[in-house]
């Protein structure tokens, strides 16, 4: 990913994995393949979003990534949670017995009246999904739609903006930056001042906070296309989680090389158990190089999480180098 400076010269944009390159190399050589989540990035996301004046609060969707330490970071910074079922509510309460019920928003469809009543009796907030699907934070043209619809719901005073309720959206590399999100929220606040605005952490931001470390086996071509073969157990769950979503592949062992952009990943029978990453152009990759697959901080619908880890790979929470508790 590149940006241009004031003189128009192209320069590389620094990412969190650039600053933690040495830590990631060590983890990659001793533990790869594995998923990794960067606490410093989570701190920045939560703090920057919470500082927006037009917001009444932040929601962390439980299904987004329910790794225990990801949830704990949300809990420690006083953000709220959004759950889709009582199973998720109970798991959250088991991990945080002192979590007040008012810090849980329960997502309820119109045909789940009993669950809505039970949630209200337990002191949870109940969120009803709008049938217009007008809850996507990435579409600024919907500001006028909120203004048009608001008179139809005179008793509603809270508007939750965020992701699809089932988190089926792909987490793309490019999304609204903080300035765009803040401008969008202010536009909604000006159009509908009667609403208290709550924001779910955007999928693409939480996705950016995570990555996958893997070891390169060799580079070459497959079907006349440049590719890199990597050491990954490419079973169905992992393959479907990666396939079709835009990522960036960074060779951590060669930090001065130009970034490698992933076009697609596939399995080949002759490379059983390994993944083949097709790239845009030939690249310098040698056996043993540690590669990082970006934007892997969120779970996909196909993700399997059990005692073996995420899609049979371990998860590692990379703690901030300098801890500074910030209360939202």
Task: Work out the count of structural domains.
Answer: 2
- How many strand segments? 18
Question: Cα distance, first to last residue?
Answer: 31 Å
* Averaged pLDDT: 80
Main β-sheet, spatial strand arrangement: 10-11-14-13-12-15
For CATH, the homologous superfamily of the largest domain is named as Alanine racemase
Write the H/E string, N to C: EEHHEHEHEHEHEHEHEHEEHEEEEEEE
Low-confidence spans:
1-11, 132-138, 165-172
> Could you say what the CATH architecture of the largest domain is?
Alpha-Beta Barrel
Rg from alpha-carbon coordinates: 21 Å
- Basic shape: elongated
What would you call the structural class?
alpha/beta
Largest sheet: number of strands, sense, barrel closure: 6 strands, antiparallel, barrel
What is the CATH fold-level name of the largest domain? TIM Barrel
Provide a quick synopsis of the model:
By secondary structure, this protein is α/β, with parallel strands linked by helices.
How would you characterize the overall build of this protein?
- The chain is an alpha/beta fold and 328 residues long.
- It folds into two domains: 2-31 and 210-296, Elongation Factor Tu (Ef-tu), domain 3; 42-204, Alanine racemase (TIM Barrel, Alpha-Beta Barrel), CATH 3.20.20.10.
- The protein is built from ten helices and 18 strands.
- The strands form four sheets. It has a six-stranded antiparallel β-barrel. A six-stranded parallel beta sheet has the order 7-6-5-4-9-8.
- The two termini are 31 Å apart.
Task: Present the secondary structure layout.
Blueprint: E1 2-4, E2 10-12, H1 16-19, H2 21-31, E3 34-38, H3 39-50, E4 55-61, H4 68-76, E5 80-83, H5 86-95, E6 104-108, H6 113-121, E7 125-128, H7 143-149, E8 158-161, H8 178-191, E9 196-200, H9 203-208, E10 210-222, E11 225-230, H10 236-242, E12 248-251, E13 260-267, E14 275-279, E15 290-294, E16 305-306, E17 309-310, E18 315-318
Parallel strand pairs: 3-18, 4-5, 4-9, 5-6, 6-7, 8-9
Antiparallel strand pairs: 1-2, 3-10, 10-11, 10-15, 11-14, 12-13, 12-15, 13-14, 16-17
């Amino acid at each position: 990913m590149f940006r241009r400076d004031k003189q128009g010269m192209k320069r590389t944009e620094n990412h969190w994995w650039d600053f933690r390159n040495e830590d990631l190399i060590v983890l990659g050589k001793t533990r790869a393949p594995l998923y990794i989540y960067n606490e410093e990035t989570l701190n920045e996301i939560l703090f920057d979003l919470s500082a927006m004046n037009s917001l009444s609060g932040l929601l962390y969707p439980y299904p987004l990534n329910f790794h225990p330490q990801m949830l704990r970071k949300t809990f420690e910074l006083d953000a709220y949670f959004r759950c889709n079922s009582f199973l998720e509510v109970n798991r959250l309460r088991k991990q945080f017995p002192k979590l007040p019920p008012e810090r849980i928003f329960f997502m309820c469809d119109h045909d789940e009246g009993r669950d809505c009543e039970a949630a209200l009796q337990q002191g949870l907030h109940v969120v009803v999904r709008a049938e217009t699907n007008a809850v996507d934070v990435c579409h600024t043209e919907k500001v006028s739609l909120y203004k048009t619809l608001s008179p139809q719901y005179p008793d509603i005073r809270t508007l939750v903006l965020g992701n699809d309720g089932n988190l089926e959206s792909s987490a793309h590399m490019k999304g609204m930056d903080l300035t765009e999100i803040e401008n969008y929220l202010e536009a909604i606040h000006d159009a509908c001042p009667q609403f208290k605005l709550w924001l779910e952490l955007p999928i693409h931001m939480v996705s950016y906070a995570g990555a996958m470390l893997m070891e390169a086996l060799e580079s070459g071509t497959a079907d006349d296309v440049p590719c890199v073969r990597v050491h990954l157990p490419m079973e169905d769950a992992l393959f479907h989680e990666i396939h079709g979503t835009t990522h960036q592949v960074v060779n951590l062992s060669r930090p001065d090389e130009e970034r490698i952009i992933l076009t697609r990943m596939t399995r080949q029978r002759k490379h059983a158990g390994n993944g083949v990453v097709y790239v845009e152009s030939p690249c310098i990759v040698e056996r043993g190089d540690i590669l990082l697959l970006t934007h892997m901080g969120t779970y996909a619908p196909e993700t399997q999480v059990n005692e073996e880890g995420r899609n049979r790979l371990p998860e590692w929470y990379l703690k901030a180098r300098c801890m500074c508790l910030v209360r939202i």
